[in-house]
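@channel sequence for tomorrow's demo:
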Amino acid sequence: MAQKFLYLVDHFESFPRSEYGGIWNVIAKNDDECFDLIKDYDNGFNENYVNLRENVIKAERFALAENKESRIVTSFTT
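structure tokens (generated this afternoon):
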């Protein structure tokens, strides 16, 4: 079983969809899986996510003591 991490990913989308952005909390085994989970979760994925991969790479992450299912834990976007 691969080690899983809790990612705290900054998020930004331009106006009119959002004026500020927010944060994604994601359980994933690596950056690629984290990116794919966010992309697949939001059906409105579009050009406003141009920095998403960079934000995932720069995200703060914490190793989990238990093996949890990879998923979006929560998101807060404005």
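heads up for whoever presents: The chain has a mean pLDDT of 85.
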